[in-house]
Design brief:
20 helices, ANKLE1, DNA endonuclease activity
């Protein structure tokens, strides 16, 4: 039996000797290499307790250095050769040269600046934060206990990109551990991804098709701002209603206190203003159009009246409704997000706001919105062809998108609406 075991042990020893890969400064730190080397020596049952054993340690160390590092070592030990030094002396020289003690203040400063990168997952962000604490020496000054998890929790919340997730984390009890905070963040992120994916699946199933005038701009959105035709249509609209005849009875009067508004779905925009610079113009335009689920006309005295009914349902615990617009709003709130209410073309008389609303609905097509009826045109636009009315809507939608990109994304939750 012993005769069979002995060759096996010898082969295992040879295998262990060969399994220590040389130090590669491009793929690992010297401290990591020393940990591998120490484990290797323990497996070999070798230490530096005697002169002979120390010499073996030196030979193994030198044999696993790259030519570049060995050349550096010869300079550090000059005029002596590296193998004339003890194992501990060589390790000390190499550590001082390859892994100098980092400044604790500098490392803590770098840690405090580390935020989640664009596209970086929560798990990867956590791994990077943990890695950075290695040289930060986060310990209590009085009892020397580690405070790493407290600092990790603080920096994780501070640096996470998603403001909705951060808001959720800030609502947790002060006793919540770092692991619990990360678990909550992961849960919220997964829920948001699932909700977004479900919505996109629904949109694909719906196969949105806009008016031919709007469809024609999807691949070349810049043509809208470059074409004088679009500008002329809006100028004609504005000119007619800028100085209305007070003797003429227009719908709801001539007080310039009305505006148009668009309701956008944040599950689709995903903070579009913040992402737009890194996206092709065609994708920005398509994303903006896809996110619009309602077009309306509002009054300055009650800017959020269109959300009041939804708030009443929400406060009453009724999260389902037959009204398509209200249900869409409730679904957004259930996803722990806020409705984006974009106010545009303000300080106009009611019939101008109604006309702008009608033009945008016509361009988008009613079937792609949560509106129940088409809008109403007034004045000269009422006499235009459907093609001209749709082109007016295209021009207004493009201008609304530019306003949105410049002003940024602001969401409204039930608690934001009185």
């Amino acid at each position: 039996m012993t005769e069979h075991i002995q060759p096996l042990l010898q082969s295992m020893t040879i295998s262990v000797k060969e399994n220590l890969h040389p130090y590669d400064e491009n793929h690992e730190t010297f401290d990591c290499y020393l940990q591998r080397l120490d484990n290797h020596l323990q497996l070999m049952k070798i230490d530096d307790s005697t002169a002979e054993r120390d010499k073996t340690c030196v030979q193994i160390l030198i044999s696993r250095l790259s030519p570049k590092i060995y050349q550096t070592l010869t300079k550090l030990t000059a005029p002596d050769l590296p193998n004339s030094k003890s194992y501990k002396e060589l390790i000390k020289m190499l550590k001082e040269h390859l892994a100098p003690q980092a400044s604790i203040i500098a490392e803590q400063h770098k840690f405090s600046l580390r935020t989640q990168h664009e596209g970086e997952t929560i798990d990867n962000y956590v791994a990077e934060l943990r890695k950075m604490t290695t040289n930060c020496y986060f310990k209590c000054e009085n009892c020397s206990k580690s405070t790493i998890n407290t600092h990790l929790r603080t920096q994780f919340i501070r640096g996470i990109r998603d403001s909705e997730i951060r808001e959720k984390l800030l609502q947790q009890k002060s006793t919540a551990t770092f692991e619990e905070i990360v678990q909550i963040a992961n849960s919220v992120e997964i829920s948001k991804k699932k909700a977004s994916q479900m919505l996109r699946t629904e949109l694909v199933a719906l196969q949105k098709v806009y008016s031919s005038e709007l469809e024609g701009t999807l691949l070349t959105p810049n043509c809208i701002k470059d074409s004088p035709e679009y500008k002329t249509l809006e100028e004609t609209l504005s000119k007619e209603f800028s100085n209305p005849d007070p003797s003429r009875k227009w719908r709801e009067g001539v007080n310039k206190s009305s505006f148009s508004y668009l309701l956008l779905d944040p599950r689709l925009t995903k903070n579009l203003p913040n992402r737009a610079e890194q996206m092709p113009p065609t994708e920005v335009w398509k994303t903006f159009l896809e996110s619009i689920f309602y077009v309306g006309k509002g009054k300055r005295a009650r800017p959020y009246s269109h959300l009041y009914d939804a708030v009443k349902l929400w406060n009453a615990g009724m999260i389902n409704d037959s009204n398509k617009k209200l249900q869409h709003i409730l679904d957004i709130w259930k996803a722990d997000l806020g409705v984006i209410c974009l106010h545009v073309f303000q300080n106009v008389i009611p019939v101008e706001a109604y006309t702008r609303e009608a033009a945008m609905i016509a361009a988008l097509k009613l079937k792609n919105l949560r509106n129940n009826i088409l809008g109403q045109f007034y004045g000269t636009p009422l006499t235009w062809s459907a093609q001209q009315q749709n082109k007016l809507g295209v021009a207004l939608l493009y201008k609304a998108m530019m306003i949105f990109l410049n002003e940024g994304e602001r969401q409204l939750k039930p608690s934001d609406i009185n």
